[in-house]
Amino acid sequence: MAHKPKRPLSTYMLWFNSARESIKRKNPGIKVTVVAKRGGELWRAMKDKSEWEAKAAKAKDDYDRAVKKFEANGGGGGAANSRAKKRAKPAKKPSKKSKKDESDEDDDDESE
User: Fold this and answer.
1) Of 43, 50, 68, 72, which one's alpha carbon is 20 to 30 angstroms from that of 24?
2) Residue 75 pLDDT > 70, yes or no?
């Protein structure tokens, strides 16, 4: 069975994937979190994002076409998918203690 196409990357993620190695080269040994933070700073400072916006728009168009094709070929909904999903089991309730169990615990406290 074919799977639904993945959603396209955002404009920022397309840019960041291409810029990540450059950021690492300029700052050797920095942590992943710092790379991400630096990427966000560079992205906010960037004036012309049109190249990446065009790439994101193309990716979105490709995704939309792939989803339409997927749905046209029987994917996406209906009885076939509802059977595939498993029903969640109800959560178990905590077991109740009997009066005998409670009195045994009280006896333990007194003997100490």
Assistant:
1) 50
2) yes
